[in-house]
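TA notes, week 10

Several of you asked for a full example with nothing omitted. So below is the full record: structure tokens for the whole chain, then the designed sequence directly under it. When grading your own attempts, check the secondary structure regions first.
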């Protein structure tokens, strides 16, 4: 069935350029288009064509000064009146080609006015001899043919600063719905509108007209004139509501008002029953033979029902010729069977006929694929529905199936059905919408990509093994059924060429389909001739890998700062394992795990190197279909991190790739220079401390000689522990620098972890390694100074000891903070080390300040 078209959308459509033409003809020769005066029942809204020119400050191409729509259901007439001010060149470009869409099967178009207001003058531009009627059929790419035509008129001499005004009337309604009335209009749009009016003249003796508003509380003005009720809405200075992408279909973005004379859903069912229940008549011979053959083939009810469903899904192709009444009235089921094509209405009715012939209870059901559960809040009317499915009873249970789907897998109880939420079953006595459960909606896709890298120069082999279930398998099965194997293989090759240049296909894709289990496996074989690419600036070779199955599976909106909720593909589960057999085992790639979990999706990443086998495991699963606007910012941050994680780059410098990757050590010159600089600065600081310490006043003077004689002196007592701690600390600094030697001074390690694209890259690795090296060298020199000062009983030893212990705490805390931000190191750092170091420093610094032995010993 056709989607209902809101009034303002029709207005916007005729401002767009026609994308293609099928039929041309002079309007004067077309009986559906003519020139007539404005109907007498119309009340024109007053408006002022005088406007100030905005110059370069205009934010939009046009400014809408007026939009009014008036309807007379009894006459089946709809009057449209628009006035637009041309603010910029783009406004002139977009508005100079007027287009009015109408359906010649039941509508006639009458133009009343097309003119330009310029400098106080009105210039008539209505010339039907220059008007063309075309038939674009812009929806034919989805096999939908409506028969609609477009009246196209090119407005000559339209300029910036002009006001373009036009008015026309459409007369006629689709015969299938002409006896009843429904309409809706938006009160705000994606553009500013200075004046807007919507008017309906409703016969007083007709059925009650029901009115519902959404996101607006504006009430109509009611007057009664000659047996008619005049409903009128007037608006001034309606500001634009900026559209946001990836908005859920059920989200009501713009405020609107709807009107309907259908009193309840029973009225809609009663309208639909004559359309969907053809008169009983004998089956055509070939159809009767087909059904009897199925019944002889199997006695299992489920198998019989599945035969009928798969025949309608796979053998009756989808084509919708929604012209005239066909937009609402299904084709006769025998015609659909004979033609071997039909739309959702025709295919559903045919399936119901087949199922009933085999003894099943089956009925068509109207659904709104966009509105879903929100349809329950709308006024009852058939224009809300855009699709038809079938409800059948099997094993005393309701089973919902979609005859327009094709090449589905699984048993009939678990075939995929889109989330439709509500349906109106076309059956005598139905009074309300019925809940439609989502069926087998989970979709899973598992991919294992294996790379075999024999060396750093030869072509590399890539094998891709995929397993698809759920609607992913349905989509693949349909694609494979409609595309020859050679083209499928070529498409897959071009897909991978996006990520790996120089790729060649070794064998055509191999496909294995288990339709009963709804599981499709594919195997692909490729050769990549230049996986390793040379980076002359870095003097290294680089190979990049990507989890293509997770590439851009999560949508990224253009509108990131949002007021509307965000729509996600749900439910969706994809997993990809990348297995890389490296040319040698001389690789140092740390293990890494990362989990991202939010209200929109969960993602897990695991990296493990065993010998020369590097494994990257990644899985992403969506958790919701709709994300609130306030959570989109956090979602986008996590999505950016996911996109970074699915890429992996491996680096080898020239020396390492020689001889199939011998692990020859290459010095990181930058870190060596920093180490030398740190050593020199540390030496200068130590020398300065020694000299300045000599100038410190004596801690014990002559006047306290009696106290001195009575105090413990010499490097004994608790100072023995201080001496041991200093010596052990010096050795630990040496061990620490030696153990981290490769991390500090190896160019390979630095490239892997501290440079973007490295296999273990994190932006804090470079800062962490640099701070550890500089801190370690500084502590080593200062510790050595303390030992010398200790045994020399230097008077500056106590304050220097305290300062260095504080400095060591700062270095340790800085290292802890940095490493804790790096995922693969976060679990290895122990906050207890910082606590223990702090307690130790507090104890020994207090000892240095309060001990009489310290004061009596360090006096030189």
């Amino acid at each position: 069935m056709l989607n209902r078209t809101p009034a303002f959308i029709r207005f916007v459509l005729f401002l767009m350029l026609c994308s293609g033409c099928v039929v041309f003809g002079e309007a004067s020769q077309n009986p559906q288009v003519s020139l007539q005066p404005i109907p007498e029942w119309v009340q024109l809204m007053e408006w002022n064509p005088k406007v100030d020119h905005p110059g370069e400050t205009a934010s939009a191409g046009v400014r809408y000064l007026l939009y009014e729509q008036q309807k007379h259901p009894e006459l089946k007439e709809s009057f449209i009146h628009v006035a637009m001010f041309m603010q910029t060149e783009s406004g002139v470009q977009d508005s100079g080609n007027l287009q009015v869409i109408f359906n010649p099967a039941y509508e006639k178009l009458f133009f009343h006015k097309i003119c330009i207001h310029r400098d106080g003058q009105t210039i008539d531009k209505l010339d039907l001899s220059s008007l063309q009627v075309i038939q674009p059929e812009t929806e034919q790419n989805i096999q939908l043919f409506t028969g609609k035509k477009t009246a196209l008129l090119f407005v000559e001499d339209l300029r910036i600063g002009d006001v373009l005004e036009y008015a026309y009337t459409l007369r006629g309604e689709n015969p299938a719905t002409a006896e009843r009335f429904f309409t809706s209009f938006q009160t705000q749009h994606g553009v500013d509108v200075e004046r807007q009016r919507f008017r309906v003249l409703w016969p007083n003796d007709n059925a009650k007209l029901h009115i519902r508003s959404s996101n607006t509380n504006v009430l109509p003005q009611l007057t009664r004139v000659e047996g008619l009720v005049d409903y009128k809405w007037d608006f001034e200075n309606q500001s634009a509501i900026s559209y946001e992408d990836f908005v859920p279909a059920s989200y009501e973005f713009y405020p609107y008002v709807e009107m309907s004379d259908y009193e309840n859903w029973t009225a809609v069912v009663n309208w639909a029953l004559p359309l969907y229940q053809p008169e009983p008549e004998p089956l055509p011979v070939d159809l009767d033979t087909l059904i009897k053959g199925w019944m002889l083939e199997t006695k299992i009810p489920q198998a019989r029902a599945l035969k009928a469903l798969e025949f309608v899904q796979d053998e009756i192709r989808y084509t919708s010729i929604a012209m005239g009444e066909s937009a609402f009235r299904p084709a006769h089921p025998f015609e659909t069977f004979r033609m071997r094509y039909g739309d959702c209405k025709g295919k559903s009715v045919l399936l119901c006929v087949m199922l009933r012939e085999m003894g099943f209870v089956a009925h068509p059901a109207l659904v709104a694929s966009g509105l879903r559960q929100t349809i329950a809040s709308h006024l009852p009317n058939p224009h809300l529905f855009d699709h038809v499915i079938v409800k059948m009873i099997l094993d005393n249970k309701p089973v919902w199936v979609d005859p327009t789907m094709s090449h589905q897998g699984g048993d009939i109880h678990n075939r995929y059905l889109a989330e439709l939420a509500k349906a109106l079953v076309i059956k005598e006595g139905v009074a309300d919408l019925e809940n439609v459960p989502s069926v087998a909606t989970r979709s899973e896709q598992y991919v294992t990509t294996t790379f075999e890298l024999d060396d750093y120069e030869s072509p590399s082999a890539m094998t891709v093994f995929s397993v698809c279930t759920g609607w992913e398998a349905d989509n693949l099965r349909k694609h494979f059924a409609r595309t020859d194997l050679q083209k499928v293989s070529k498409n897959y090759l071009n897909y991978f060429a996006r990520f790996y240049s120089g790729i060649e296909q070794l064998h055509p894709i191999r496909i294995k389909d288990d339709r009963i289990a709804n599981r499709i496996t594919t195997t692909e074989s490729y050769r990549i001739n230049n996986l390793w690419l040379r980076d002359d600036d870095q003097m290294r070779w680089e190979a990049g890998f990507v989890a293509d199955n997770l590439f851009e599976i999560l949508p990224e909106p253009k509108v990131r700062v949002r007021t509307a909720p965000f729509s996600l593909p749900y439910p969706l589960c994809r997993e990809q394992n990348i297995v890389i057999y490296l040319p040698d085992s001389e690789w140092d790639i740390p293990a890494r795990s990362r989990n991202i979990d939010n209200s929109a999706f969960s993602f897990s990443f695991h990296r493990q190197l065993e010998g020369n086998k590097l494994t990257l495991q990644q899985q992403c699963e969506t958790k919701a279909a709709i994300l609130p606007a306030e959570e989109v910012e956090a979602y986008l941050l996590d999505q950016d991190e996911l996109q970074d994680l699915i890429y992996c780059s491996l680096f080898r410098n020239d020396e390492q790739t020689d001889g199939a990757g011998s692990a020859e050590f290459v010095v990181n010159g930058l870190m060596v220079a920093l180490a030398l600089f740190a050593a020199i600065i540390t030496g200068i600081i130590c020398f300065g401390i020694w000299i300045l310490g000599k100038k410190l006043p004596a801690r014990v003077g002559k006047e306290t000689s009696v106290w001195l004689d009575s105090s413990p002196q010499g490097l004994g007592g608790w100072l023995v522990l201080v001496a041991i701690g200093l010596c052990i600390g010096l050795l630990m600094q040496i061990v620490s620098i030696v153990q981290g030697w490769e991390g500090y001074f190896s160019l390979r390690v630095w490239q892997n972890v501290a440079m973007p694209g490295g296999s273990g890259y994190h932006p804090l690795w470079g800062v962490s390694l640099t701070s550890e090296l500089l801190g370690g060298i500084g502590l080593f020199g200062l510790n050595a100074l303390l030992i010398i000062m200790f045994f020399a009983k230097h008077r500056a030893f106590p304050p220097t000891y305290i300062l260095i212990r504080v400095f060591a705490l700062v270095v340790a805390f800085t290292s802890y903070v940095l490493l804790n931000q790096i995922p693969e190191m976060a679990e290895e750092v122990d906050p207890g080390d910082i606590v223990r170091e702090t307690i130790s420093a507090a104890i020994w610094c207090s000892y240095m300040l309060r001990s009489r032995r310290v004061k009596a010993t360090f006096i030189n």
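Residues 765-791 form the longest helix (27 residues). Use that as a sanity check on your answer.
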